[in-house]
Every structure is written in C-alpha cells, then in structure tokens.
Design a protein that fits this description.
Dihydrodipicolinate Reductase, domain 2, 17 helices, alpha/beta, Gfo/Idh/MocA-like_OxRdtase_N, Gfo/Idh/MocA family oxidoreductase, Rossmann fold, Gfo/Idh/MocA_Oxidoreductases, six-stranded parallel β-sheet, NAD(P)-bd_dom_sf, 502 residues
Length: 502
Amino acid sequence: MKNHEEKIHVILIGCGPHARRVYLPALRTLKNVNLALVIDLESEQSVVQHALGNDHDTALWLIQPFNSQLPPELSTRLSQFVREKQIKGVIIATEPLVHRAYAEWALANSLSILMDKPITTRVNVTSNIENAKGIVDDYQTLYAAYQELQRKAETVFMVNSHRRFHKGFQFVKEQIHEVAMRTNCPVNFIQAYHSDGQWRLPNEIISQKYHPYCFGYGKASHSGYHIFDTIYQFYKASALREKLADEMEVISSFIKPNGFFTQLNEHDYRNIFGDAYKQENTWTEEQLRETCKDFGEIDLSAIIALKKYGNVIANFNVNLVHNGFAGRTWLKPGKDLYKGNGRIKHESYHIQQGPFQSIQIHAYQAYDKHDQNNGKEEFLGGKNHFDIYVFRNPFIAEGSPQPAVYKYSDLADSHTGETDAAITMEKVKFTVVAQFVDYLTGKITKKEVVSQIEDHLMPVTMMSGVYCSNITKQRAYYGFNVPAAEQEVDICSYYGSSDAIV
C-alpha cells in the first residue's frame, strides 16, 4: 500500500503561459507532491526563472529546441534523473509537435503521464496529407506503447481534456444518458461553436510561437481539440450497443491567413490604428501572402457524419473560430497571450436526441479582464457565464415546466471553491492536476482516473479528418472495427482502433 502522506516527485516539461497559470500554482497547492524538475527552452530562461521564484526544491534545465526526436543526450540525462530522484510522473506541456517524443521517453521509463491536448500534431498538417494522416498514426503508436507498458507496470496516461472534469458538461452527459436508457434513442445532431475571441495582427501571425500558425497548424490543434472531444463525450453518453456507428465521414473548410488578409487589409488597419500600424507591420501584402500560404488555419467549419450500415445516423456541425469578437483595442501585443491581449471566449452547443430531448449550452464572455474580482459573474457576459437549457418531450418530462434552466452554481459543490470569483475553467484544470497526483499517491485507483488515452481515438480521428478533408477537398472516411454480436461492448475499446481512407 502507498503511504498517502508520502510526497511523490514529478517533472514538468514545458513552462509556457498555460503551465505558469495552471500547472505551477496547482502543484503548489498540493502538499503531497514535489516538483523536482522543470524543463524549458533557453530562450524562455528569464520568464521561467521568474515563475519559479525562490523555489530551491525545483531544478531548472534549459535546452535548445529540437524537431521530432528527443536528443539522445537529453534522453539519457532525463532517464538518469528519473532513477536518482524516484520520479513517478511527468506533466508534458510543451509545443505539441514534440508531445510524441516526450511521451515515448516517459513510457520507456515507466512513468505516468499527464499531457496537454492535442495528443500530437505535425508541421504543415493543413497542406501535407501524410502529416495530416500521421496524427492518427501518432496516437496508435503511443497507445500501443502504453499497452505494452501495462503488461509490466501499472501507470496512467491522462490527456488534459478538462471539460471532462467540468460539472456542467458532466451534468449534460447525465441527462443524455438518462434519456437514452429510457427511450433507446441516441444523439442524432450536435452543433458546436467555440470562439477564442483573439485578434492577431498580420505580423503577429508570422512571428508568434504561442498557439502558432507558422508551423502549418492552427485552431483545430489549439483549443479545437477540446471541442472534438466534447462532441465525442456527448455522443458516447447516449451510445447504445446495437446503434453504435461503424463509420465516420468528415468534410471541412478552413479560413487561413491569406483569407484573413483579404477580410482586413493594410488600408483597413491604417484606418483603425493610424500610421503607427506601419511601424509594427513592415510586411507588404504580397510578402504576407507568400510567407503565409502554407500557414495553419485561423477558423474552420466541418460536418462530421456518423454512419451505421452505410446510412448517416448522426451529424455533428462544428465551427471553430480564432478570429471572433475580441476586446483588443491596442496595437502592440500584450505580454500574456493566454488570458490577456483582449481574448474573449464564446462557446455553445445544441444537442438533439431525436424527438425526446434538446439540450443547449451557452457560455458567453463580454470582456477580457478575467482576473478582476467581481464575484462569480454567472450572468450573460460574465467570465463564468454557463447556462444549460434542457427541453424534454412530455412522455419523459413528467409534467415539469419546459425548459429546465441550470447555471453552473446549481451543479457545483459550494464547498469545493468552484463557485468563487476565480475563472471556473481554471478551477477545473486544477482538478485535473489533483486527480493525477491522487493516482500517483494511491488515493484513487486507475479505474477512477478520467480522460485516459484509450478513450481518445475518436477526437484524434476527428482532428485528423478535418485536416485531410481540407487538403483533398473531399470527404475523409474512417471505418471502425466492429465487435462480434455476442461480445460485450465498451465504447472506449470499440473506438480504440480505426482504418482510414482519405
């Protein structure tokens, strides 16, 4: 038995804006964990040292960037550190292009993993079909390595899809599951919309490395993965053995930087910001278009169709936007590109479950000053606005008035601190870290751990599919291995393998 009071040692790889705002403070609030090592790039030395402050218990390694393979000397040095310090887990919060390299190293060293989304992406996935397909290949490679490790030692491989830990989304899944059990009716339609509300100027599209476009990927590989995963979670909540989809088709359309430059050109920017704009952006429109022709997507729309016996049984309409309503009014970018720089989030879902149930989720911020302490702010436009509308057919409504309306505070436990003035989503992200540490210390079992890698093929496939479809201008097709009729079906394992045709 593990001693629950004994401190376990973990490593944080990548200390960017998200890690500094979530992982560092989350780990500092947990008494039973020691952050033994932080790794980041030499170019980030000053900001990471400032974030660590006077924490003398945490070593800091600064390295040079690498492409896809972990440099042998770094791998050897890290493995030796793991043995000497008895490291139990690693948090991978790097640029996603190197997620696979670090995850493979961690699995080879029998470590439990908490990794940021997406599981992986690749350079030029908006233009290179092999790289777009490779997103699924990466998943299958990591999952196979993880399964091999489990034959020798029990670990977890968590993917930080934090909406799985959010009580609002959990409540919606419960409503969907309840109606599915009562009516035998699965979800047949989901409309999902997410806007980051960021306004990135042309020169910043070229230069910024946080949530970049310059590596040939964009919105789908940024926050978009969360939405793919949430759609899957809603569908899975209504999954009925005999009605599970066995095929998926994806068709997509991207707005890339060159389309954005047509929407707002240099003349428009000079009208907005005056002559000072030219001092910030020295690129001509011709130079911008040539430089950005293979850059990642800013906005995307997709239709994801699930099929059974060759017939479409569910349509998911997905709209993911970086270039949405924002609060930025200044020319030079802010220092905080994560929650600062005018970023305002809008998110909504419409879920139809045949004639029996319709659920809507609405979460709309109106301003970008998220750290001001103005209370819970659950009102429309507040930083924690999150409304759920549930409409039910009279057969199952049992005489209750329609719709039933819920706020997040109606569902959250007031004793957990989830209803205070902090940003709800950030509190949820702290919960992810706490669960990872609870597993490492033996407070919870592996069965209790949420968002493990074996349940992520479907959102990975959606993400790969939107890239493949945009490149080929055709539907991307995926078939799932169908279990024998007499087998018990667990949806996680059912969607644990796929064959792709693009």
